[in-house]
Write a structure and sequence with these properties.
This protein is mainly beta and 289 residues long. It has four helices and 17 strands.
Length: 289
């Protein structure tokens, strides 16, 4: 049997596969196929989710090239719902860290995770809130996203995975994100997460900014939340008003996250909730495509 847990961070939901945590850290691990990921994430014929989080000892993460491990003991192998590999997932990282703490695989209030996007430091507050140091948001060039003929000006932002943040006065709740926005394929050859953002703060000079965000994620579609998207949004909104630091509350369809931006990094804080656990039927799991 293959064990699984199902959980979410602001309703950005994931399937966590923890069985491999007990492996010899140097053991060879069978690859998680794209077909298996798609079947797991299928909301009608599978468990359902925006992606899959696989737990591996860093020594067993042989498929992740040039992996920076530092003092991290665990590798977060993250896959989008379509089976594609992604560099980083902020909401997933909190859920991953919550499992490590609850399973006794980590016991300190601060520890590192190895990801394809680099080391990510997790901090658990006294109240139990989890925050992840997501690294710096790297602002790129201006570009546009198009939906049903309407054009939205935005800016390229890298959180090691690609984003296009579009700050707009069009009410984002009215947008049709049932299909992917049209973007510059030369600028985003590997696809892009596109965020559409309304500024809700009474004044851009507010100590704590407040925005509303909707996001269409590559390899998934519209999701209820996106942690790296919230970080990219916070950095771009601050930059657009001439600031390189500040705190931004980001409303998403699934709730609310908080992003703290400094000149050197971004920190994402928010909930992480497990809702179910169980075993995957071995006959069903054996069919990879």
């Amino acid at each position: 049997m293959t064990r699984f847990l199902k959980g979410h961070g602001t309703e950005n939901d994931f399937i966590l596969l923890p069985d491999l945590a007990d492996l010899d850290p140097t053991a060879e691990v069978p690859l998680l196929s794209a077909g298996q990921v798609r079947r797991l994430c299928d909301r009608h014929a599978g468990i359902g989710g925006d992606g899959v989080l696989r737990l591996l000892p860093v020594g067993a993460a042989t498929e992740a090239e040039n992996l920076t491990t530092g003092d991290a003991r665990w590798f977060m192998d993250y896959r989008n719902a379509d089976g594609s590999v992604s560099e980083m997932c902020g909401n997933g990282a909190r859920l991953f860290a919550k499992y490590l703490l609850e399973a006794g695989l980590e016991s300190t209030s601060t520890f590192d995770l190895a990801t394809r996007g680099g080391l990510r430091r997790v901090t658990r507050s006294r109240s139990g809130e989890l925050s992840v140091d997501m690294g710096p948001a790297r602002l790129g060039v201006e570009s546009v996203a198009r939906i049903a003929g309407a054009e939205f000006a935005g800016r390229q932002v890298s959180m090691t995975n690609p984003h296009l943040v579009c700050l707009t006065e069009v009410t984002v709740s009215a947008l049709d994100l049932s299909g992917p926005p049209i973007v510059d394929g030369d600028l985003f050859p590997d696809g892009v997460n596109v965020e559409f953002v309304n500024l809700l703060s009474d004044t851009p000079a507010a100590a704590q900014l407040h925005v509303r965000m909707r996001v269409h994620e590559r390899g998934v579609g519209e999701t209820r939340s996106c942690g790296t998207g919230a970080c990219a949004t916070a950095a771009q909104v601050l930059a657009q008003i001439g600031r390189d630091s500040g705190e931004v509350i980001v409303d998403v369809l699934g709730g609310e996250v908080r992003v703290t931006v400094t000149p050197n990094t971004t920190t994402l804080s928010g909930p992480a909730v497990f809702v179910a656990s169980g075993d995957i039927d071995p006959d069903w799991w054996a069919i990879s495509e």
